[in-house]
DNA sequence: AAGTGGTCTAGACCACTAC
DNA sequence: TAGTGGTCTAGACCACTTA
């Protein structure tokens, strides 16, 4: 995994960009890079494409490859690299202490809706996991998740009080890399107000999503109600389609 | 543009998937496709990668290429294809009539923040465009946009009452294909309540974004305050990084 | 005309899965 | 062991930009 040619070059170029090595904001042309790295031009293209998809560089046919000026200026909005699977990860970097309080944990039969979303057969069971997430003792998110027992039979109360994704990745070697997310806003309910410390006039952001494993297996359906001050979802959209 | 090999194959495969031609949910292997389409395997891979990025198929090394079961089941959440540059486009399909009311339109010097975000020199001017967007006479979004006069010198009051992106694409041939979006939620202000018909307790969703042209030129900074019932932002996230 | 990125090919070899 | 997707190469030719 770590020995992929294009990936190493991608990382190296990213470091060189961050180190401000290319003051002209222009990268060497692909044929030069091919020669200096001692790899084929295809591999260079592939590395550059990954960087372009992350919004770090952009390519202009006939002119060259340039560094996105916003990348160095405003690195906070370019957090694609780490993860934007959910808010969870976006807050890890703050140096604050993340906490998880388990509100509810049980096994129930999958509703019809869950059967569809998680691709389950009638009669299959799911964990229902309700958690309150905080940073430095201030709660920011109520998370209601459903995970089929079939895909994660080893879950228990203790494991659910930490990162389920991390536990699952450690235990099985497969990771959660794809998701559909829907983002909406909603007035806060009484429960939101109590758990998140909101005034009645203050809203929550709602993120609903289905998370998938590498191989396409649906892993979790999650509904997250988030203190409006903490919802901050960043995306980089590229409609070029080809990536 | 329309004669690209991988693009044509991509479209053809998408049609065949939608026509339910592959009942086993499994596509032919890449080498067979290569032969039957009469192109190199690289081109097949490229076509398949685009489909995989759209979440339509997924590939499993050693096993084959499969159709994402959710694609056929729940096509509504897969609207990546059309556009998710903003809410604007997501609502076009509803068969409702979109309306734009121009609230304000002037030219002002770019603030420091705008200079940074739009990559302008001090002293440059931008259009400030404030619009209220409705469907069937019910307002759903207040849009405050800033566009450098340098990149769109031909804007006028009339053109701003329609789709600026469409006008610009028609006029110049370059289109807006990339964006950074930040999504948050916010209690509604008095103005929000008046313009969008909200109760004081009802919130707005806020989408802020920078839109870029193909070549990376920043085109617009936009701040959209959206009636919470109409904010519905869908994304497909793929952390595989390589695309 | 020279330079640069884009598309496409033909084929070698590797890594993983299923039988 | 056979089949499948992943990585990588070396090179041809095309399309666009700049001078």
Automatic annotation (TrEMBL), chains A, B:
<dbReference type="InterPro" id="IPR011663">
    <property type="entry name" value="UTRA"/>
</dbReference>
<dbReference type="InterPro" id="IPR050679">
    <property type="entry name" value="Bact_HTH_transcr_reg"/>
</dbReference>
<keyword id="KW-0238">DNA-binding</keyword>
<dbReference type="GO" id="GO:0003677">
    <property type="term" value="F:DNA binding"/>
</dbReference>
<protein>
    <submittedName>
        <fullName>GntR family transcriptional regulator</fullName>
    </submittedName>
</protein>
<dbReference type="InterPro" id="IPR000524">
    <property type="entry name" value="Tscrpt_reg_HTH_GntR"/>
</dbReference>
<dbReference type="InterPro" id="IPR036390">
    <property type="entry name" value="WH_DNA-bd_sf"/>
</dbReference>
<dbReference type="GO" id="GO:0003700">
    <property type="term" value="F:DNA-binding transcription factor activity"/>
</dbReference>
<keyword id="KW-0804">Transcription</keyword>
<keyword id="KW-0805">Transcription regulation</keyword>
<dbReference type="Pfam" id="PF00392">
    <property type="entry name" value="GntR"/>
</dbReference>
<dbReference type="Pfam" id="PF07702">
    <property type="entry name" value="UTRA"/>
</dbReference>
<feature type="domain" description="HTH gntR-type">
    <location>
        <begin position="3"/>
        <end position="70"/>
    </location>
</feature>
<dbReference type="GO" id="GO:0045892">
    <property type="term" value="P:negative regulation of DNA-templated transcription"/>
</dbReference>
<dbReference type="InterPro" id="IPR036388">
    <property type="entry name" value="WH-like_DNA-bd_sf"/>
</dbReference>
<dbReference type="InterPro" id="IPR028978">
    <property type="entry name" value="Chorismate_lyase_/UTRA_dom_sf"/>
</dbReference>
């Amino acid at each position: 995994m770590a020995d992929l040619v294009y990936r190493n070059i991608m990382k190296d170029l990213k470091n060189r960009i961050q180190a401000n090595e290319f003051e002209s904001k222009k990268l060497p042309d692909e044929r030069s890079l091919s020669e200096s790295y001692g790899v084929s031009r295809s591999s260079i293209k592939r590395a550059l494409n990954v960087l372009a998809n992350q919004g770090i560089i952009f390519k202009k046919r006939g002119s060259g490859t340039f560094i996105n000026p916003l990348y160095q200026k405003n690195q906070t909005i370019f957090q694609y690299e780490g993860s934007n699977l959910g808010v969870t990860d976006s807050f890890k970097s703050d140096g604050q202490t993340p906490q998880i309080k388990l509100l509810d944990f049980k096994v129930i039969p999958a509703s019809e809706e869950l059967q569809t979303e998680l691709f389950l057969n009638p009669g299959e069971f799911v964990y229902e996991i309700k958690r309150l997430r905080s940073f430095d003792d201030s709660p920011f998110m109520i998370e209601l998740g459903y995970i089929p027992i079939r895909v994660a039979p080893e879950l228990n109360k203790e494991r659910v009080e930490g990162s389920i994704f991390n536990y699952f990745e450690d235990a099985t070697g497969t990771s959660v890399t794809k998701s559909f997310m829907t983002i909406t806003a909603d007035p806060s309910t009484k429960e939101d107000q109590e758990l998140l410390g909101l005034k009645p006039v203050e809203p929550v952001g709602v993120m609903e999503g289905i998370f998938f494993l590498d191989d396409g297996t649906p892993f979790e359906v999650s509904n997250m109600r988030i203190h409006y001050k903490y919802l901050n979802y960043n995306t980089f959209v590229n409609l070029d389609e080809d990536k």
